[in-house]
What does this fold into?
Amino acid sequence: MNDCNKHKGMPSKWAWIIFNLVIYAAASFENDSAKAFIELIEFDYEDSCASTAEAEWTFINFPSNETLSTWEEKLIDYAIFKNVHRIEVANKSKNISDPPLKYKYDIAVTIGDALLNQSDFRKLVRFAGAAEFQRLSAVHRGVLKNHTRKDVERQLSLNNSIEEKKNVWTAWYQELAVLVKNISTILPLVEQAAKENGAKDVTEYWELLSGFPDGYNKIKYEWNKIADLHKKLLKHVMNNFSHKYHITMNETVPAYLLGSLQGSEWTPISVDASSEPDLMFDIKKNLWKRKLLGKTLYKRASDMGMQLLKHVPNSEFWDKSRFNQQCPSKLINFCKGGNMRVSTCYEPTVSNFISAHKNVGKTLFNQMSANNIIVLNTANRYSVLEEAVSELFGILAASPAWLNHVRVIDNSTDNDQHQMVSLMITALDVLPRLTYYMAADMWRINAIQTGITDSKELTASWWQYRQEYQGIDDDGTEIPTFLNDDYITSNKPYLPKLTGTILAFQLYHYLMESTEVRYDLIEGKQTKADFIKMIHHGGSDDWSRVINTFLEIDEISPYSLVSFFSMLEDLIDTLDEDFEYRAATGKESELQELEKRIIEEVNAPTTTSTARTTVAKRKMTTAMPPNKQNDGKSDTNAVAGSDKSLDSKSSVHATEEKSANHKTLQSESSTKVPFNESLYNSIEEDDEQDNKPKINTSKAVWAVGAVLLATIVICVIAIFGRRRCRKTPKNRRYV
It folds into this structure.
């Protein structure tokens, strides 16, 4: 009887096992099928993404109506492409159980702003493109005629007159102000995109794109720790400015005194803010004396990649990047093989020094993770981890060890001075940016949720948020400085940069096993293996899972950041108790004279370099006619005139004939603008010579003549030699 019952139960048990095997096999087949299909789509993504990146690269280096139009159309085509493949993925991949594959599926169907209807997406692209064209173009009128953004930034960082700073700052923004009327139609598109991507509101949508659920609330919870640090730095800066400019400051600083147009990072005022102004000035001076110009600066920054990660940027980065363009720099991801290119300016300022290291860090992150990176991540998400690695390179760049390594700091001064200068540089770079990121996102979220549409009301609200978070004001100008920000004009969130900057200090803590400033270099052999593995897999999955898997970091915390700045905080408290202003008197003029001398030395002509420059100049002229560069400034005004002009083909694309009559920026600025205001005109050179300002014309003519004469002599010798060869018996020619 018992045996019977036992045999009776057997069929049902085996049936259950077989049933589960069938289910598992079906799920496995579904996963394999979906995986193969998504992998095929990723190949198409690479091609479309790279094509769009190429169009953007051409535009930012040769801004014109034509290159702008091409870039905009590529962006629109890319969005259409994403939508087509989104539908295909959604139809063929419904029951996915594998977590990594499910992650790919999610980012293939929630594609961000590309889910906007075509007319709205076109409107966003047109506005973002017109704003970028304005920022890249030279000013065509007023006190800043023929000045570029870089020229204006230079004036703000060097000029010591409050009135002149304010005039330059105001004049630049007056060129952009014509676009402000359209911002009220662009901001609400974020809310529309949120609905299309299945998010309940703007906050959840930007958290989705950043891969950081409930991210804003988590950062707000800890925000006071960061805000208190920034307030101490702000008070210290105000004390110094009050004595330098002989003005009274209570709770805010005028934005135009911060050494740059946007005022989002304060390294341009490092000499004024430092407790060791002479040492800080020496760093600025030594950046020039060491000739860390253009590509040379990036070569030194790549040394950090070798020290830390045993990697340097690949050959394409060096061959195709342009080190003689505008600042702030633009780093473009070409979506294949981790290939990146930078378009940046020539000057070795403290800001550009830090930026170069950050760009190298970001380049190496993409290069090292190329074999594992998900191109869908690159296309449809913002990587917090990529930002964190980039910021880590920036933190290390300002360390006493690295400043000494690149020989821009005087080794005779004591460690305490080195430490305080290093901490001040990092604080001026990091803390104002964190508060700016927070202000920019909170302002937009509030404007969208409360339905603010009037441009004047939006501008007033913008400055309220900047005063609250950053402690800066517009000095009654009511200027919409948000138009100078490509993240704002293209509806991108700052949450990934905000989170990545905080995470960077956690990465620093992990590597150093301390939050204190290091005096010794970190070498690749000392770098923890798990950190390298994390970078290799940094783009293969959700960033939070990656850092948890390899580094066991399970939350974003400002503890490491606050601890890092604790010694600087104590110093500022001490200085404020017994305040004494220490000015670096007369240093600015000394630095300008040094810059002139270095430029002249770099420009010292040689036969080889002159010939190379001449050939390069011909190639550039052939590739892009000069009258296409930085023209059409006034034409972009029509884009801002009405919503209608944004929906249809905007007038910025329909005025080529008028734009062609403008003189080139290069020729006018090099002849009419004084040295300390002008663009450093230069042509790309090889790795050693770098990009150099234009050589004196008369010397170049003699040098070119010498090259031509030498060429003729060589040709004559070659001709006679060839004739001699022809007379040689055939059986002896190859002996």
About this structure: The longest strand covers residues 330-333. The radius of gyration is 29 Å.
